[in-house]
Amino acid sequence: MKKEKIILTGDRPTGKLHIGHFVGSLKRRVELQNSGEFDKIFIMIADAQALTDNVDNPEKVRQNIIEVALDYLACGIDPTKSTIFIQSQIAELCELSFYYMNLVTVSRLQRNPTVKTEIQMRNFESSIPVGFFTYPISQAADITAFKATTVPVGEDQKPMLEQTNEIVRRFNHIYGDTLVEPEILLPDNAACLRLPGTDGKAKMSKSLGNCIYLSESADELQKKIKSMYTDPDHLRVQDPGKIEGNTVFTYLDAFCHNEHFERYLNEYPNLDELKAHYQRGGLGDMKVKKFLGAIMEEQLGPIRERRKEFEKDIPAIYEMLKKGCDTAREAAADTLADVRRAMKINYFEDADLIAEQAKRFQMGE
Ligand code: TRP
């Protein structure tokens, strides 16, 4: 049988999704979904993982499940093609994590760069909750439970995929070929790998207040773009401006195509010419921001409208999620059966084991 092509990916429900999520992963997921190249697609709302650093804020996680689901649907994730489900509803994932814990050392987890930075960000240095510390293991369970071959995520997830592959190799080495090694799929455009916040800081984050959300109103969107960080030394229109570290140009790198010039700024043929003019001097920030505003509205407007439609029937979305959980649970249970067999903990379905032991004891051992 030809090996199935399976996608698993997901997001923590700690807030609405923003354009960093969109260019980093969401947009790609929709393209992959619609390419018809994949046999199965699982999109997970990672609430259990969100709780690893939001223990005392369950209400936040609970409220954001629907926000993330709405963002998915608004972007074009189609529940008839992709299974959207909620992590905590699949008990098999906990069981799998428990077995994987035996395959990973404490020092290996300590070396995981994403965990390292996150520990610093959350001031966990002196007392790290075990659940948070081990979330890369649970993430390996998420991925392997669905026998995922492809995991489209942002660059920050690379260490998680490396750790997953180590677990898979170790498991298969000890217990025999059972689990599938996944491949990471990163955005192909450098600007999309890590979209900075509107203030020019390295990452979009809710706590920094530098996000543009997918559900942003048209007015708010334009306001945020107008106040974006550019080149602080570009004071007058005639001054030469810098492109590097200029957030407006980074966003253009991520969102702009040549057709956009025909539509909104036809005095330039392409982004290179626009950049060159900015660098020479004589091009004001406002003009570039207006152009970016038009492009972003073209991209986000339809997403916003679709979201409003889905918001009209919230119970239907919970129904869809419930069905998704059922489908996901079935898939994970299949893998768990393989895992239990491989690990020799499938006592009751192994008639040979029982017969063999019965014989041994009868021989009076
Ligand atoms: N760690 C991911 C994030 O923070 C969410 C996630 C949990 C995930 N499990 C996953 C992503 C498995 C891909 C595959 O966004």
Walk me through this protein's architecture.
Helix content is 56%, strand content 6%. By secondary structure, the chain is mainly alpha-helical. It folds into 2 domains: 6-195 and 314-354, Rossmann fold, CATH 3.40.50.620; 218-309, Orthogonal Bundle (Tyrosyl-Transfer RNA Synthetase). Helix 4 packs across helix 8, helix 8 packs across helix 9 (158-175) and helix 12 (247-255) packs across helix 15 (285-311). The protein is elongated and about 100 Å long. The mean pLDDT is 94. The site of tryptophan has 13 residues, from strand 1 and helix 8. Tryptophan binds at residues 8-12, 46, 49, 139, 142-143, 151, 153, 157.
How many strands, which pairing sense, and closed or not: the largest β-sheet? 3 strands, parallel
Order of helices and strands: EHEHHEHHHHHEHEHHHHHHHH
The gyration radius over C-alpha positions equals 24 Å
Instruction: Report how far apart the termini are.
Output: 44 Å
Shape: elongated
Record field, number of beta strands: 5
**Assembly state of the chains shown:** single chain
At the fourth CATH level, what is the homologous superfamily of the largest domain?
Answer: HUPs
Number of domains: 2
